[in-house]
Design brief:
It is built from 15 helices and 19 strands. By secondary structure, the protein is an alpha/beta fold. It has 2 domains: 164 residues, Leucine Aminopeptidase, subunit E, domain 1 (3-Layer(aba) Sandwich); 305 residues, Zn peptidases (Aminopeptidase, 3-Layer(aba) Sandwich). Strands 7-8-10-9-13-17-14-15 form an 8-stranded mixed sheet, sandwiched between helices. Strand 3 and strand 4 form a beta hairpin. Helix 2 packs across helix 3 and helix 3 runs parallel beside helix 4. The protein is elongated, with a radius of gyration of 23 Å.
């Protein structure tokens, strides 16, 4: 790779998950769930009043570690009055015993039916594993202690259901960790060509066909957006096509991801501020698609899925696209470049055109696209747009299942007039001060060919400054779980 071979570190530390009916001897720490009311599990060794005296409230995600001279530590983990966010619970447990590698969480008696305990196991596993994620590839010294074993203890009647949820949680946590790895890797260690090489290496092992298109192919295909944004760079662009084809697929779904490996803004140079310093994460959409699609075979997905990852950096030079330049897409649309820092939509239009030409049942795109979405919704959720009610509801359902929140925004088509150009069919963005998240969505919709389409603007949740639940500081891997759930559920008409 550009700065030396930096493998995705999460792939080097696989986690063994299991389900048992008793605490294994290998456990370093055992978590016990404590509701706000009712009896406290006996093996905690403290009653409710004594726990309260130590500051334990039993509120959701509160913890108290009871050390032991012999055997594993016992961790009281609060779940509140019911309806707790179990990813938060799993994360709190894992953080409370952050120096232990082998963890056990006892669920017996906490859930009373197979479906509920399966969903609970999935969320708890995701929370526990992701809360202990780190990116140690470029740091000296000993890395943080990873979770190497996680066991859920349940009533014998629920072993099979719990095992299903545990495995799903492990697979989706691994996908999120991979997306984090890629987005956290600096640009000088992960160019577009490096990303393509990585995808070509790991994809086939996970049931994917990977096609990589270099500059000659990109020019021959008329991918004007990629060529436009790449014009100022010494690094070559790549278009990566991922194909997942199960036997007898039920339906076909396309995914288009923004893969701007580093975004300086191009000629419209960004200021040297904290946002600019995070721009290695501007390929988080493409990373989420690759990570999600790597999980589909293990999840038994019956939907045929095609990913289009539009990858380049965006930098200024004497050859960079100038403001006022006009490009012509392969569908004939001419676009005037009003702002070279509105480059994500420019490259994603290429992917949407290809998806429309291939005739999928629907397409979803995902991108760290606009500061407007971040300002509107903050860092906890992504903006969701779309032209199809069914697809939007599927995306909302996948978001609810994954714990990756979205908020539907209006696709207010009268705003499209803001893209009117005197010299081309449209501009790539509206003048400053206009509702850019909506206008960017309208720009993208133009290239869908009327296909059912959903757009995820993840500019807010792509990066975190502090730890919260399963999220750790740095790139969050947002969207990998949502996209996987969307693909799996899309097979049902």
């Amino acid at each position: 790779m550009s700065g030396g071979t930096i493998p995705a570190p999460s792939l080097a530390t696989p986690v063994q998950t299991s389900v048992a009916v008793s605490v294994p001897e290998s456990a370093d720490a055992v978590g016990r769930l404590v509701p706000s009311e009712g009896p406290v599990p006996d093996d905690i060794g403290l009653d409710r009043d004594r726990l309260a005296a130590f500051g334990f409230t039993a509120d959701t995600a509160s913890t108290f570690v009871v050390p032991s001279a012999e055997g594993p530590a016992v961790v009281a983990v609060g779940i509140g009055e019911g309806g707790a966010d179990l990813r938060q619970v799993g994360a709190a447990f894992a953080r409370a015993c952050g120096n232990f590698e082998s963890l056990c969480l006892v669920l017996d008696g906490a859930f009373d039916d197979a479906d509920t305990i399966s969903r609970a196991a999935e969320a708890l596993v995701e929370g526990a594993l992701l809360a202990r994620y780190s990116y140690p590839a470029l740091k000296s010294g000993d890395p943080p202690v990873p979770v190497r074993e996680l066991t859920l203890v349940v009533d014998p009647a629920f072993v099979d259901a719990t095992r299903e949820g545990t495995e799903t949680g492990r697979v989706l946590a691994s996908a999120t960790a991979l997306a984090r790895d890629l987005a956290n890797t600096p640009h000088n260690h992960l160019s577009a060509a490096d990303f393509a090489d990585f995808a070509a290496r790991i994809g086939p092992e996970r049931g994917l066909q990977v096609e990589v298109f270099g500059m000659e192919e990109i020019e021959g295909m008329g991918l004007a957006g990629l060529l436009c944004v790449n014009a100022g760079s010494v690094q070559e662009a790549r278009m990566i096509k991922l194909s997942y084809r199960p036997a007898d697929p039920a339906r076909s779904l396309a995914m288009v991801g923004k893969g701007i490996m580093y975004d300086s803004g191009g000629i419209s140079l960004k200021p040297s501020d904290a946002i600019h310093a995070q721009m290695k994460n501007d390929m988080s959409g493409a990373a989420a698609i690759l990570a999600a699609m790597c999980s589909l075979e293990t999840l038994g997905c019956r939907t045929a899925v095609t990913g289009y990852l539009m990858c380049t950096d965006n930098v200024p030079s004497g050859t960079a696209t100038a403001l006022g330049d006009v490009i012509t897409y392969r569908n004939g649309t001419t676009v005037e470049i009003l702002d070279s820092d509105a480059e994500g939509r420019v490259v994603m239009a290429d992917g949407l055109i290809l998806a429309a030409e291939e005739g999928h049942d629907a397409v979803v795109d995902i991108a760290t696209l606009t500061g407007s979405a971040l300002r509107a919704l903050g860092s906890d959720m992504a903006a969701l747009f779309g032209n199809d009610a069914d697809l939007i509801e599927r995306a909302k359902s996948a978001a609810a299942h994954s714990g990756e929140e979205v908020w539907q925004m209006p696709l207010h088509r009268p705003y499209k007039k803001e893209l009117d150009s005197l010299t081309a069919d449209m501009m790539n963005c509206a003048p400053v001060g206009k509702p850019d998240a909506i206008i960017a969505a309208l720009f993208l919709e133009h290239f869908t060919g009327g296909m059912p389409w959903a757009h995820l603007d993840m500019a807010g949740p792509a990066q975190a400054g502090t730890a919260s639940g399963p999220v750790v500081p740095g790139c969050t891997g947002w969207g990998a779980r949502l996209l996987a759930h969307l693909a799996v559920g899309f097979s049902a008409a």
